[in-house]
Write a structure and sequence with these properties.
Number of helices: 23
Radius of gyration: 24 Å
Largest sheet: 2 strands, antiparallel
Length: 536
C-alpha cells in the first residue's frame, strides 16, 4: 500500500510537519502528571500490574542477558514460574540498563518509566500511517490520516495505557494489533507487492510482527487469528496467487521466532502446551495459520477462482485444524481452554478482575461505561465504521471489507471484555478519522473543506472524559499497599513480622505471613508493591 499522499512537495512537507507536531503533542500528553509516578522521590508505578513488570524488568537487568523464569516472590520462598511473556519486560530491562549507564539507578527508573509513552506515540504514528494507506486519493486523504492520529493521541483508552509511570504490556499489545492489521491489509487488492523484493520484505516484516506479538503477550494468537481471514481471502481473490507475499511464509517465520523465545520458558516451567504461559502452544497456532495460508496458495495455483476453490480452501483449513488436534491433543485442549477460560471467562478468578468486565456492565450504565473508556467516539462508532468502510471502498472494496471485519471483531471483543478496548481504540481512531475526512470532503464538490477533519477531531479535547484521562489530576498514590511496603522496608529484621495476603494475591497458596527479613511477601500483587516501592 502506498503511504505517501499523491500531492505536491509543499503539501507533503506540510503533512510531515503536522504529523511531527502531533507526535510531540501525543508524547507531552502522556508525560503529563509524571510527578505522580515519583511519589516520595522514588518510582512507584501507577498500578499493581506495573509494579510487577517493573520488578521483573529489574530482575532481567540484573541478570542480563539472561531472562529469569522463576520468581521467588511468587509462592515464597521456593518461587514459581513467571506466567507472562518476556518481550515487553526485556525491552524495559534494556532501557533500565541504558538509564543506569547514564544516570545511575535513578536514571534507570526515569528511562523505563518512559517506555509506555514512547510505545503510545508509536501507536499514534501507526494509526496515521494506516489511515494514510487506506484513504482514497483526493483532498481528504491527508486530513483523514491526521484526524486519525489526533484521535489516537487523545482517546481515553489510548492515553490510559501509555501514561508515564504506567509500565504494562497493553500498549505493546495495541501496537502489535495495528501493525498486524497494516501488514495483512497490504495483501488485498489493489496489490502493491508485485516485485520479489517487496514480497520478501513483506514476509520478513510479517515474521517480526507476528513473532514479536507472541513475545509481548501470550494471548496474541487471537490477534493473528483475526487477520488470517484477510490472508486467505487475498489468496482466494487472485487468479494465480504467489507464495511469496501471501503472508504464509511470514507466519511460519513468526512461529519459528516464537519457538526460540518459548524454549527457555518451557524448560523452566515444564508446561509444553499452556495458553496462560509462554509455551509451544503459541508457535503451534501460528504455524497452523501459516500452513493454512500456504496450502490455500497452492490450491489457488491449480484451481480457478470460484466455488471449487472456496470448497477446497474450507476443506484444507478444516483438515489442518483437525490434524493438529489429532497429533497434538494437549495443544488443542489448551487452545479450547484458552477460549473458554480467557475469552468466555469460564475461569472464576478471571471473572472477578476489572479489565475482564464488559463496559456495558459499568455501574453507571452502558453509555457511561463506553464513554469512560472511549469518550464520545465510541458512542458514534456504529455510524463511524460504516462511513469509514464507504470511504475506503472508493479505493478498494477488498480493503474496506477487511478493515470493517477487523474493527467489528475487536469492537465485539471489547463489548465482551473492556481489556480489548485498548487494542480496538487505535482502529476506532482510524475509522473516525477517515469518516470525518469523507464527510468534510463532501460538504463542497471541490473538497475544500476536507482540512476541517483534523479540526473536528481536535474537538475531542473538550470531552471531559478525554481531559480526565490526560493525567492533569494527581493520581491518588501512594496507596495503602505502597505505604505498607515502605513501612516494612524501614523495620529491622525480626523473627515473625510479615504481611497477611488473601488467596487471590497469593496465587492459590493461601493466606500466610512471611518473615520480614525477606522484605517481601509470598504473593503476586502485594510483592509487586514491596519490590516496586523498595526500588530493589
Amino acid at each position: 500500500m502506498t503511504a505517501v499522499p499523491a500531492t505536491g512537495r509543499r503539501e507533503r512537507l506540510a503533512f510531515a510537519a503536522a504529523v511531527a507536531m502531533l507526535l510531540l503533542v501525543a508524547l507531552a500528553l502522556r508525560l503529563a502528571g509524571a510527578s505522580a509516578a515519583f511519589s516520595g522521590g522514588e518510582l512507584v508505578t501507577l498500578d499493581g500490574d506495573s509494579l510487577y513488570h517493573l520488578h521483573r524488568m529489574r530482575l532481567i537487568a540484573d541478570q542480563f542477558p539472561g531472562v529469569p523464569w522463576i520468581d521467588p516472590l511468587i509462592a515464597w520462598p521456593a518461587g514459581a514460574p513467571i506466567p507472562w511473556a518476556a518481550g515487553f519486560d526485556l525491552l524495559g530491562a534494556v532501557l533500565i540498563l541504558l538509564g543506569r549507564a547514564v544516570g545511575g539507578p535513578a536514571g534507570g527508573d526515569l528511562w523505563v518509566a518512559a517506555l509506555c509513552p514512547l510505545l503510545g506515540v508509536a501507536v499514534v504514528a501507526a494509526a496515521v500511517e494506516l489511515a494514510l494507506a487506506l484513504g482514497p486519493a483526493g483532498p481528504g486523504r491527508w486530513p483523514g490520516a491526521l484526524a486519525a492520529g489526533i484521535l489516537a493521541a487523545v482517546l481515553p483508552q489510548d492515553v490510559a495505557s501509555s501514561r508515564y509511570g504506567l509500565i504494562d504490556h497493553h500498549v505493546a499489545e495495541a501496537l502489535s494489533m495495528i501493525l498486524l492489521a497494516r501488514w495483512a491489509l497490504a495483501v488485498l487488492p489493489p496489490w502493491g507487492l508485485e516485485t520479489v523484493r517487496r514480497r520478501l520484505f513483506h514476509e520478513l516484516a510479517g515474521g517480526v510482527i507476528a513473532g514479536g506479538a507472541m513475545l509481548v503477550f501470550t494471548g496474541s494468537p487471537l490477534y493473528v487469528a483475526l487477520v488470517v481471514p484477510l490472508l486467505l481471502g487475498a489468496a482466494l481473490l487472485r487468479q494465480r496467487p504467489a507464495l511469496l507475499g501471501s503472508g504464509g511464509p511470514g507466519l511460519l517465520l513468526g512461529a519459528a521466532l516464537a519457538s526460540l523465545a518459548a524454549a527457555p520458558a518451557v524448560a523452566a516451567h515444564g508446561r509444553t502446551f499452556a495458553f496462560g504461559f509462554p509455551s509451544w502452544l503459541q508457535p503451534l497456532l501460528l504455524a497452523v495459520a501459516g500452513l493454512a495460508v500456504c496450502a490455500v496458495v497452492a490450491v489457488g495455483a491449480r484451481v480457478a477462482p470460484g466455488w471449487r476453490r472456496v470448497a477446497a480452501v474450507v476443506a484444507i483449513v478444516l483438515s489442518l485444524v483437525a490434524l493438529a488436534a489429532l497429533v497434538l491433543p494437549q495443544g488443542a485442549g489448551q487452545a479450547v481452554a484458552g477460549l473458554r477460560e480467557w475469552i468466555l471467562k469460564a475461569d472464576p478468578w478471571l471473572r472477578g478482575i476489572d479489565e475482564f468486565q464488559s463496559p456495558l456492565a459499568y455501574p453507571g450504565g452502558p453509555l457511561a461505561g463506553l464513554r469512560r473508556y472511549f469518550g464520545v467516539a465510541e458512542l458514534l462508532a456504529p455510524l463511524l465504521l460504516p462511513l469509514a468502510w464507504w470511504s475506503i471502498r472508493a479505493a478498494s472494496s477488498a480493503r474496506a471489507n477487511g478493515f470493517l471485519w477487523l474493527a467489528s471483531a475487536l469492537a465485539g471483543l471489547t463489548v465482551l471484555q473492556m481489556r480489548f478496548g485498548r487494542v480496538f481504540t487505535p482502529l476506532l481512531a482510524v475509522a473516525a478519522g477517515l469518516a470525518l475526512a469523507w464527510v468534510a470532503a463532501r460538504l463542497r464538490p471541490a473538497g475544500r473543506l476536507a482540512p476541517l477533519a483534523p479540526l473536528i477531531a481536535s474537538l475531542a479535547l473538550f470531552d471531559p472524559t478525554v481531559r480526565a484521562a490526560l493525567g492533569t489530576a494527581r493520581d491518588p498514590i501512594p496507596n495503602a499497599m505502597v505505604e505498607a511496603a515502605r513501612e516494612l522496608r524501614g523495620r529491622p529484621a525480626g523473627p515473625n513480622p510479615g504481611v497477611m495476603t488473601p488467596w487471590d494475591m497469593a496465587l492459590g497458596i493461601g493466606s500466610r505471613a512471611v518473615p520480614s527479613a525477606a522484605r517481601t511477601v509470598g504473593s503476586n500483587r502485594a510483592s509487586e508493591a514491596i519490590r516496586g516501592a523498595s526500588g530493589a
